[in-house]
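Ticket closed. Logging final result for Acyl-CoA dehydrogenase.
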Amino acid sequence: MTDVAADLIPTRRAPLEDTARQFAERCAEHAGDHDLSGDFIAGNYKAMKSTGLVAAGVPTELGGGGASVRDLCEMLRIIGGACGSSALALSMHTHQVAIPAWRWHHQAAARPLVEPLLRRVAAENIVLLSSGGSDWIGGSGTAEKVDGGYKIKARKVFSSGAPVGDILMTSAICDEGGERTVLHFGAPMTAEEVTVLDTWNTLGMRGTGSHDIMIDGLFVPDDKIPLRRTAGEWHPGFQLIATMAFPLIYATYLGIAESAREIAVGIAGMKPVSHRRQSTAGRMDTALAATRMGHEHMIAAAERNAPSEQSVNDVMIGRRLVEENAILTVELAMELAGGAGFYRKTGLERRFRDIQAARYHPLQKEAQSEYAGAMALGQPVGRIF
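Final structure:
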């Protein structure tokens, strides 16, 4: 399998948008091949590292690119238009960088805790994996208390980038005094107790390598657990995660929707104009505009730098708007393109399948509606997830 060229000219000092466009042009050449075979985009990670994309969100003072959340969203939007798998996988690493970077900038007391990890990302180009989708507020896996720490047993699903990850940012549940407590920690992917299972065979996003990860008896010392929280309840740490992570993740889907629109317009331009075709194109562009507005709403909530119940609500309302309208945009792009969109060579059917993944990140529709309704009516939201 051919990937993005390993000798892609490093552009660490170039504007992030230019670097993202250069990367996107190269990985677009092989996105269809990865989709067809289901092969992981391993070679693309080499280019992500060589061009500074992996360290883009690390503060410049710590050796990284110093990109803002808005800049990182633009990076992922551009890449998403070319290769959804590359953008989604990178978004999972990027949000795990953006969260400690936010703490470094805004929480002075947290600097000693997060700075070593951020410096490693910048200096070593380590890749962080997320198990957030499989854990979320409820948590998963078990942590057994032993002398000096905990023994972890868990199976984490949807861990994008698993084949090349260095640290899995994850959690497990222990019973402390009759209360279910979630322990957060980083699991080294090189540990013999950590195994990547070959499970990723899916409808779309087929190159992300989002395999299950099995943790069987990993020892985590007490001093390597930076966060403890009650299982099944929103914690301020998760308000930060939700506020920062989802604008980045959903930038991928905006990019996919925009690229589907461009493909469809190009195909439709080769056909006779009709009122019906114009109507379809108009509905498509309206849905795309709603997608962009929803995503801007998410970014604006993150840029307030005030993680809270309200920021979570705003981000999740935007997330719902992006999900529904991005999917609708691509559906209408398929309709506008007609039968040509059914062929793999146009790239539309891949985008149609990839966009479906927008349905599955938290908060999904029912939970988001309940959360927003509780906020509107002044009711507690601590256990709505």
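Residues 236-268 form the longest helix (33 residues). No further action required.
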